[in-house]
């Protein structure tokens, strides 16, 4: 009997221990998942103790929502927003500037950019063999792109390259806006054709600088005596092409640097004389853009020209000398 009693006592004690162990596990798990009755997990107790030591700092929900979700004060986010707005404004300003460039000037500027990129990709020697004006390849190889690339290559990017590209944009835009796209296209065709002949005779591989000087010469002849700033002095407008030539000669320390500018002045004067001076002396205006080209590229100019001619014809047909003086008595 005593043995059975001791065995039963041991079994009951074992059951009690097992139940107590299970209750401790279940209460610990429930406290970790969802604290109840002030029960706090050990990790949170340590965190709270640390915060109490540091001064009781607590995380608070932000009233500004997503504005302070990533930053403490919001300054970085506002600054990033302003930087993005400035970047977008700069991009839109650059896009607007590019869009306002006249059509054929924009094409010319793009050609300069493409030739510069090809020069960087191909290298100096190979780019010159592909882009330079070669009379034999032009005539016998039928490589008709060479006059265009010879008029659009400015070499590797540099300060001189940047200034020349700006001159192309500035002078080209002024000419195209003043004379219209059709006349500007005829001007470019005349300049490139004549410079191709001169370059083949003189052995000049590229003549972009001559085109720039020709543009400046034609612009300066439109108002030759207007005073303009050159460096730090005021000079007449007609002297600017020569000033540009002198600047390049001094920079290169060689008189050969004047040759492209001399060619540009010659071909520019050829266009200006045959387009504006020769017709006024009674000669034929043979260098004028064809009416078909004007109507195609600049219809507004064609309409204005027709209206101007009709007004001039009406004024010529008007009878003069048949009016009566004020106060005169009719018979």
What are the SSEs and their pairings?
Elements: H1 2-33, H2 42-54, H3 75-99, H4 103-122, H5 124-131, H6 135-139, H7 146-150, H8 159-179, H9 181-202, H10 208-222, E1 227-230, E2 233-236, H11 240-252, H12 259-277, H13 291-297, H14 299-317
Antiparallel strand pairs: 1-2
Helix pairs in contact: 4-5, 4-8, 8-9, 8-10, 9-12, 10-11, 10-12, 11-12, 13-14
Going by CATH, the homologous superfamily of the domain at 102-298 would be: Rhomboid-like
Helical residue percent band: 55-70%
Taken as a percent bin, the fraction of beta residues is under 5%
Whole-angstrom Rg: 42 Å
Average pLDDT: 77
Overall 3D form: globular
How many separate helices?
14
Reading the helices and strands in chain order gives HHHHHHHHHHEEHHHH
Query: Under CATH, the topology of the domain at 102-298 is which?
Result: Rhomboid-like fold
Count of beta strands: 2
Structural class: mainly alpha
- Per CATH, the architecture of the domain at 102-298 is Up-down Bundle
Uncertain spans: 24-46, 49-69
């Amino acid at each position: 009997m005593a043995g059975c009693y001791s065995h039963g006592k041991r079994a009951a004690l074992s059951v009690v221990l097992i139940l107590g162990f299970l209750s401790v596990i279940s209460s610990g798990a429930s406290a970790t998942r969802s604290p109840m009755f002030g029960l706090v997990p050990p990790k949170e107790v340590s965190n709270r103790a640390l915060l109490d030591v540091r001064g009781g700092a607590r995380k608070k929900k932000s009233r500004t929502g997503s504005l302070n979700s990533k930053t403490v004060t919001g300054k970085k986010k506002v600054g990033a927003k302003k930087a993005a707005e400035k970047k977008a404004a700069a991009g839109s300003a650059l896009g607007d500037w590019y869009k306002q460039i006249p059509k054929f000037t924009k094409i010319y500027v793009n050609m300069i950019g493409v030739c510069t990129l090809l020069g960087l990709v191909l290298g100096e020697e190979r780019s010159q063999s592909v882009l330079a004006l070669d009379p034999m390849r032009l005539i016998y190889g039928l490589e008709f792109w060479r006059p265009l690339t010879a008029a659009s290559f400015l070499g590797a990017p540099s300060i001189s390259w940047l200034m020349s590209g700006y001159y192309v944009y500035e002078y080209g835009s002024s000419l195209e806006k003043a004379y219209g796209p059709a006349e500007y296209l005829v001007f470019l065709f005349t300049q490139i054709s004549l410079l191709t002949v001169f370059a083949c005779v003189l052995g000049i591989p590229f003549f972009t600088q001559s085109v720039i000087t020709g543009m400046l010469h034609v612009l300066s002849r439109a108002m030759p005596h207007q005073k303009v700033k050159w460096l730090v002095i005021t000079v007449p407008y007609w002297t600017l092409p020569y000033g540009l030539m002198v600047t390049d000669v001094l920079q290169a320390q060689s008189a050969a640097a004047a040759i492209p500018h001399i060619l540009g002045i010659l071909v520019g004067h050829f266009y200006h004389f045959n387009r504006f001076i020769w017709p006024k002396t009674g000669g034929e205006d043979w260098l004028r853009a064809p009416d078909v080209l004007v109507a195609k590229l600049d219809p507004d100019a064609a309409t204005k020209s027709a209206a101007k001619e009709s007004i001039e014809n009406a004024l010529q047909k008007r009878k003069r000398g048949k009016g009566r003086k004020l106060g005169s008595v009719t018979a």
